[in-house]
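Closing statement on the iron/sulfur cluster sub-project.
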Amino acid sequence: MSKKLLLEHIDVPGINTYEVYRQKGGYASVEKALKSMTPETIVEEVKKSGLRGRGGAGFPAGMKWSFLAKPDGVPRHLLCNADESEPGTFKDRYLMEKIPHLLIEGMIVSSFALGANVSYIYIRGEYMWVSFILERAIAEAKANGFLGKNILGSGYDLELYVQVGGGAYICGEETALIESLEGKRGNPRMKPPFPAVKGLWQRPTVVNNVETIAAVVWILNNSGEDYAKIGIGKSTGTKLISASGNIKRQGVYEIELGLPVDEFLNSDEYCGGMANGKRLKAVVPGGSSVPILPAELFYKTANGDARLMSYESLADGGFATGSMLGSGGFVVYDEDACIVRNTWNFTRFYNHESCGQCSPCREGTGWMLKVLNKLEHGQGSMEDIDLLWDIQRRIEGNTICPLGDAAAWPVAAAIRHFREEFEWHVKNPKLCMERNYGLLESTKKFELVS
Amino acid sequence: MALIKVTIDGIETQVEEGTSILNAARSIGGKIVPPAMCYYSSLKGSGGKCRTCLVKVTQGSEKDPRPMPKLVASCSTNVMDGMVVENTASQDVIDARKSIVEMLLVNHPLDCPVCDQAGECSLQDLSYEHGLSTTRYEFERRKFDPIDIGDHIKLHMNRCILCYRCLMVGDQLTNEREHGIIGRGDHAEISTYLEKSVDNEFSGNVIDVCPVGALTDRTFRFKSRVWFSKPLNAHRECTTDKCSGKSVLWMSDNDVLRVTARKDQNNEVKEFICNTCRFDKKDVKDWVIEGPAHISRDSVISQNHYELPITHKYKALENTAKPQ
Ligand SMILES: Cc1cc2nc3c(=O)[nH]c(=O)nc-3n(C[C@H](O)[C@H](O)[C@H](O)COP(=O)(O)O)c2cc1C
Ligand code: SF4
Ligand code: FES
């Protein structure tokens, strides 16, 4: 068994309640932080831990915290990003649903470290029931003196609110999240200024993912150095991975970073291998935005090294032969999966979710979708494959926020690694219609709304 | 304020700190000025969206000479001391701009022959300048029915490029914005609350800031092609608070066909006018005539070849636009 820092007590009955959570040592980090640490020493510990943002980009959390501007007399805010909308990613939901107090505890110590007296958890609208779980946990924590005025007699005040979003992927982008929280349309802001200087209501703000904030609890209970000893190289600690696709055991797993991908996919402790005796075709290792890896590049890097579940190893080879750890949305495709259809499906998502501010993302995602639609339904030509490549190239790097890139990368990777499959669709129009399992109907419907 | 040095396409200039790259380029003028479809200097918070103004920063500043990793929107990136910028000098920029123009035309109906904006349309100028009169886009374009938003303004959502300028007019010139953007992505649209009319003393300015023919003047529609009318600068003592009373009258013989605010060399209005001046004062006697109006040098109408680009566009249309 590998080390569990977040999910150690996940199976304890009643761990979602304050009493049981407290019995298992919960809220100890708040006592320690407020009684024997200063905000500065906490930031130092988090820096030492090497903890990296778990929302997708992997930016070092301690470094982000130390960039927070601290002008006199201006309130600061911590926002927890629980918008979790990346296809393939469902780890934050699991954590919040099963062990909500861990997130609340993390929010308290992190807010204290940043000098925030009002903090928010921004959660996607589709997680409504989870928001109720969180609100109940907040009420319990408050009733027990861990939130509100003068927490544990330390003089530190903190109010924590849950804000439910309208269900938009783009509101997971940190500045769109801030706009949405302010009650506006969730359009990403132009940067600079960065949230660390001008965020929520133009005040210095830190936005962190649910898992990032939850990880701070263990770091404070133990130490940054201890955390850094877990994992491999600059990929310290553990990571929640949400595994889906045609595998024996789908679900959320906490792994120590550096675990070989082979072990993660095939051992019974984790995914348990491919189901129904199928062979592996490809893996999207970090959520829909990251490049897809064909089986051979999944197991081994281009240099022939065994691929590991770590930021560095998954990215080895750049976009030519590698991918990214991203948000840990691990999607497995077997030999029957159609890459063209999968790409079409992802593109449908990005087209639907683009906020529409920048012309390349707004128009490009729709254009790619229509070309993919043609290809997937046996009406494409070889030129369409090149056109598709060209469109994604014109979106990437030319937009305000990374959603444009996130829409372009999966298309680029699919063509890069599976061009024959696109060509097969062009050459076998009848066959690819037959493999459509009624999908055509839903496409027609989609054409009407777009 | 301290002056700092910036070089754009090899031309060095000095600007105040806090100036955007675009405005620094405008202070130099000429070919090196990037096109801007969404930025509007008199509207706060505008810019950053259309991406036509992308430029390459090959040297960040004197202190930190590293180039910027991606092309940046010149309208919303401020210059640093010693910054070196490439606009038309960079092939990357030229390519990216071509891409953006193509993207902007993806859902554009290319209905210039029946569009009131033809001849003074920024998108027409832009595509003309970049040699693109069509896209490789072969699918049905998004379609909306034109709607009247109030007595004076027509909305052709098909032509909209979602620059957000009209929203900023609503926020910054009128007391209460009565229209907004609903939906996301390429299915977003400008709309009023349940087709409520946009009716406010300054709402007519949305027509002037619209870079395309999405918002047009209902009191002028189809009266004449812009290039057949003669623009005259005129003013009147307007009693509306904050109205400049400085207008352009678009004349045909002695008839005032249309009244607009005045645009500067960057095709922007600096002094807005009220709806009374714009829609109700259609008699020459209402105005003090100053003389012929100067029209932006870059615009298709002013280059004295109105017929040329327009017919060139008709041709392109015949070849490419599929009947919808
Ligand atoms: C389109 C888009 C969607 C995103 N969605 C999420 C999300 O749902 N949850 C999340 O934690 N981060 C999301 N991110 C990343 C956030 O912008 C931000 O980097 C992150 O919340 C920072 O937290 P971290 O440093 O703890 O990872 C998204 C980014 C983009 C561009
Ligand atoms: S890249 Fe797409 S989602 Fe991001 S700001 Fe631009 S249009 Fe909106
Ligand atoms: S003018 Fe700069 S992005 Fe539109």
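Residues 91-106 of chain B form the longest helix (16 residues). With this model delivered, the sub-project is considered complete and its resources will be redirected to Aim 3.
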